[in-house]
Every structure is written in structure tokens, then in C-alpha cells.
# Entry
Amino acid sequence: SGEEPVCDFDVIIVGAGFAGLYALHHLRNERGFSVRVYDAAGGVGGTWYWNRYPGARVDIESVEYSYSFSHELQQEWKWSERYPSQAEVLRYFNHVADRFDLNRDIQLSTRVNSAVFDEETNQWIIQTDRGDHVRARYCIMATGFVSAPNKPNFKGLETFKGKQYHTAKWPHEGVDFSGQRVGVIGTGSSGVQTIPLIAKEADELVVFQRTPGYIVPLRNCPMTPEYSQSVKENYGKWRRTERKAFGGYIALNFEPVNPNKKLAMEVSPEERQADYEMRYQSGGLSYYNSFPDLFTTKEANDTLVEFFQEKMRERITDSDVAEKLIPKDYPILMKRLVADNGYLETFNRDNVTLVDVKNSPIEEITPNGVVVEGKEYKLDTIVFATGFDAVTGSMTRIDIRGRNGLTLNEHWANGPRNYLGLMIAEFPNLFMLDGPGSPGAFFQPILLSEYQGRWLGECIEYMNRHNLTCIEPSAEAENEWVEHSAEMANKTLLPKADSWYMGANIPGKPRVSLMYIGGFPNYSKQCNAAAVNGYKGFILSDHKKRVST
Ligand code: NA7
# Structure
């Protein structure tokens, strides 16, 4: 056969969000590989580039929702608020891109349409909507777990005469709601953040709610120099403790706190209540570090459900509205806890109406509004806060083909099969960051992507050192990981809630846990073990010759 086509790059990365940015830094600056990053957006920052809706904010503290790889970066950067706004977190990612000279290898406004593995040459061929046609040995999907927007295909959607927006595709110039009758569909984190602000601006607001969330106050505030200083002095220790925590974050009442070890059902009701109250006053998502049996037993989970029901009821004046806003039929924490800033009180306003669309779903959208139970709600603007085809959507929307032309959609017909949340059988040299099968959305995803980025950097270096060209999981290893992940999920109450963690928000999506729920320490232990044992569970090959498993 003739000469092999030369690789244009060692590695192609799809996505310039936090995972792609770090992977570029690590692979190029720290390991010397040639790398090209593509992103459909006009700037870096991934989901934070797109989600510009009013009120968009991170629900993890700024000092934690940030990179740990550079001591200098951690020391230099100044956060202005306890929880960063979309604008601030986007400034941060732009700063990182500048500081580590990343922009010159990122091609923006370019969507990857297909990634095809060429078995003749063991190269990935990537094609984009800008006409790029490039080859690389390795391809990394840093495509994000909340980046493929979900807009339900309501009957009559295209007939609506007013304006419509999706929270995840918000116009850069913003939206003026004054004098408008506005409808918001969806009450997940995005809806809950934006609803209070739209309510203040619009004439009338109608909120269409399918499932009420468990609401916890975020308690955002300006960053104090003292707090910032104390974190910076102890950052190393903070980061080590975070890696041991279930959610990857530990801040509580402005102190790092180790996750609870005791069980909710073995402490006294008073001690339990005190823990819940302390977390409530601190604000945010720290309940994920509360008693471990909250995840596994209904009895324990119910105690927190009751606590939340009471807290929520205190904030709502109308008892009929309260009945609709307070969740009662699914376990808490198994859908992401929703952190708010005045969301519940918004329903005490005269210009806000809550419409329950659980039992009687939206029937249709007409030229003038939204119809529920035969009633037309007249609207000038509809805001879709309807979330994402989470975790897998950003990959399944790209035409990805592995060995023998196998498409990713075929391989994933019954759920996103993978090994260690890093690679997929029959798709050699294709890596995922924060993807399915990893603790992804259940762990502070920036720390996870740093860990995975380093893991795959080491893996590629190992391949080169041993003159190997392909790495891919064996079918057995993939099967075992899929089974192990399902087993871990089934030990929890996760399958008992209809969440995007389980693919339940997208009609027809296979219902499996999209993340590895066994915790980060347990996850990283298994990834480390595979690597030190000569990439156990993987097939390594030198061109077409299999070298080891
Ligand atoms: P989410 O959390 O998926 O919320 C989407 C919301 O839209 C949720 O309330 C859905 O109800 C609702 N939805 C979706 N489809 C429909 C239809 N067909 N009819 C009515 N309502 C619907 O997305 P977010 O953008 O708020 O947040 C995503 C994540 O980003 C968040 O968890 C954080 O990790 C950051 P449902 O609950 O499915 O019944």
C-alpha cells in the first residue's frame, strides 16, 4: 500500500468549554502534542458562552468552580461574588485562554459535523461546517453534558406569532420584556434563575411547570477579602478535600467541611435537623455532602423531603399555589437540587400565574399563546427553559463512526455504553471528558475534567513510548463497566426520579443512569488502576496487530 496520509494534528478536541480548554493546555503546553480545538460558538467557555439568560449563575461557589491545575492562576484570579454570574465565569475562562496562550489553536464558529475512524490509517477524519477536513491520531469529545439544548416539539410551535427564546441560546444583546406577556416553560435550574427577573420586568408572567423542584436558597453575596484570602492560603488542602467529597465541593458557611460519615437514620432527629438547618442557612447544594443514606434509603430521604416541604411552604402565601410548587412524589437530591434567589416569592406577586402541566400537558401552541386544558394563555413571548439532551446529546448529534462504519448512535441504542467513562469499544483513540459513565454531572465537573485530561495525556504518552497506534476498550471491559455502573445506580434512589441524570426528560431516550454514581474517589481509583496495570481492560495495538489486553 502507498504512503499513509500525514496526520494534521496529534489530537483534535471538540469543544472549547472548561474541559476542552484544560485538555488543550495539558496536551500542548505540558506534553508538547499538536492540538486543534473546534467549537461552534463565537468564543470559548462552552455552556457559559451560550447561557446568557438573565440570572444565569453557577450554583457551586466560585472558589471551587474553577481550575486547580495552576497554583498561580488560583492565587491571582479575584472572584467578585460567592457564586459567579455567567458573565464573570465567562471572563474567567477567557482569562485562562489568554494566560495559557490557548486561543491560537482554537478554531471558533466551527461546528464538527462528523468524526470518522479510518481503519486503513488508524486516524480520525474530522469534517466541519466550515469545510475543514482534517486527520488526527486522537479525538477528544469535550462536548459538554449540558450543551445540546432540548426544545420539545410542541404541536403548533411554528405558528406562534410572538418571539421565542431558549435559555441555552440567549441573544447577546439581551431581551427587553417590559410591557410584555411572557410565558416560561420549564422550572429546572435555568427557569428558576430567570423567572424572578422576568417577573419584575414583564407585565404578566405565566410559568408552565411540569415537575416542581426542591428549592434551596443560594445565598449569594459579594466575596469578602477575608474569605478569599483564607481560601487562597489553604487552597491545596481545599482541593484535596474536594476530591474526597461526593459532589467535589465542600464550602459550608464559608469553611471547608468534610462530608458527613454518619447516617441520617443513626443520629437523633435533633442532630439530623441541625445538620439540615445549618446547610439551609449556608445555602446552595451542600446537601450532597450530607448523610450518605439520603441517597440510598427512602426512610432517610423522606426526612429531608419533609424538611424541604416545610421550608418551601413558609415562603409561599397562597396555599393552592404552595400545593403545586412543593414536590411530594419523588426523592430529593435525585434530580439536581435547585438553588434559588427569590424564586418562590415570585409566585406571591400579582402579575405571576403558575400553570401545572404535569397531569394535563401543554396541548398546543397557537399563533397567540399556549393552550393547557382547553384554555389559551395569551402571550407575546415564550421562553423555553426546557433544558438539554444532557450528557449524550452533544455527542449523538455529531456523526461519529468507529470500526466497520459502526455509528455511535447504533452502539448507544440502549444507552451510552463505555468503559470508565473515558472510551468506547469499537471507537479507538476516541476519548470523552465529563461524558457518560463518569461522575460528570454529579461531581464538580472542572476538577473531573482536569483529572480525565491528565489521565488521557498520560495514556497518549504511553502509546507513543511503546510505539502503539490504537487503544480501545475490550467488549468485556465495557460490558463490566456498564453493569457495574447500573449496579451502583440501582443501589441508590436515582432511578426513582424522572431526571435528566436518567435520560427521563427526553422522550424515547433509554432510561439508564448517565453518570457513574459510585463517587469520584472510587472512580479515579479504578481509572488509575487500569493505567498502572498496562491499561487493563483496553486493547492496545500496533497498526493492525493486537499487542495486549
Ligand atoms: P432542566 O433541569 O432539565 O429543566 C428543564 C425544565 O423544563 C424542567 O422543569 C422540565 O420538566 C421542563 N420541561 C422539559 N420538557 C418539557 C415539556 N415537554 N413540557 C413541559 N415542561 C418541560 O434544565 P435546566 O436548563 O434548567 O438546567 C440544566 C442543568 O444545568 C442543571 O441541572 C444544572 O446542572 C445546570 P421535568 O422536570 O422534566 O418534568
Remarks:
- The two ends are 28 Å apart (CA to CA).
